């Protein structure tokens, strides 16, 4: 199954980067199909206008609904289809999570709508909700200048989970937030040399004792999660003795 990704933006060149590194490989392997579109291609005035002043007053500009609607008609179609996922990155969106990435990794089509200015006329989102499966998501409690960087981050989080994308899918099981880690943060990692600038690899990792190594890693994941992300812990994890 090929996942088709569409990006609607006034800066479509942001998505040229998807032709490199791992994502480029996936695109070559037919796992992923990427299409970036310039929203201004669906304007009809000399200045290719996509924004206007906000109704009710206020600072900044709002993205007009018309270009979005015409772009939707051409890129997605005019018939409702719940299998199409439309993502609006937004500071007022729900926090994007690893479980959301996991769910989206089985999607056949994902369309990213990248807002700029103060945002997109809300009727665009309401219309999309009437037609497709819509996700309004934020990367975190900060504000970017537009949705493009968020769309790229979400793309990477999702595509790396697409079956066949990762060379060694087992590595996914031990990552932070993965089910294999019970949603805990990943333990500290080490490789050779065993001693580096007076700093040594923890002895347990060189012991060859798999049970002790597994316990050390679990304890470290719990410790790190309790320290850095208490919001992810509950009474079941506890703090290692
Ligand atoms: C106008 O479009 C925007 C503006 C800021 C912004 N910030 C995001 C974030 O996830 O932090 S998504 C997003 C979209």
Short description:
Belongs to the RNA methyltransferase TrmD family. Residues 3-233 form the tRNA methyltransferase TRMD/TRM10-type domain. This protein has 241 residues and is of the alpha/beta class.
Structural summary, described in words:
The protein has 241 residues and is of the alpha/beta class. Helix content is 29%, strand content 19%. The chain is built from 7 helices and 9 strands. It has helices spanning 21-28, 65-75, 98-104, 122-131, 148-159, 170-173, 210-228, and strands at 3-9, 32-38, 51-52, 62-63, 84-95, 109-113, 133-138, 195-196, 199-200. A 5-stranded parallel beta sheet has the order 2-1-6-5-7, with helices on both faces. Strands 3-4 form a two-stranded antiparallel ribbon. The chain has a two-stranded antiparallel ribbon with strand order 8-9. Helix 3 (98-104) packs across helix 5. The longest helix has 19 residues, at 210-228. It is elongated. The protein starts with a strand and ends in a 13-residue tail after the last helix. The model has no long low-confidence stretch (mean pLDDT 93).
Q: What is the SS-derived class?
A: alpha/beta
Largest sheet: 5 strands, parallel
Shape: elongated
Helical amount among residues, as a percent range?
25-40%
- Could you tell me the mean pLDDT? 93
Order of helices and strands: EHEEEHEHEHEHHEEH
Rg value: 22 Å
Parts with pLDDT < 50 across at least 5 consecutive residues: none
What is the β-strand count? 9
Q: How many angstroms does the end-to-end distance come to? A: 47 Å
Ligand inventory: 6-methoxy-1,3-benzothiazole-2-carboxylic acid
Number of helices: 7
Family: Belongs to the RNA methyltransferase TrmD family.
InterPro entries: Alpha/beta_knot_MTases, tRNA_m1G_MeTrfase_C_sf, tRNA_m1G_MeTrfase_TrmD, tRNA_m1G_MTases_N, tRNA_MeTrfase_TRMD/TRM10
EC number: 2.1.1.228
Catalytic activity: guanosine(37) in tRNA + S-adenosyl-L-methionine = N(1)-methylguanosine(37) in tRNA + S-adenosyl-L-homocysteine + H(+)
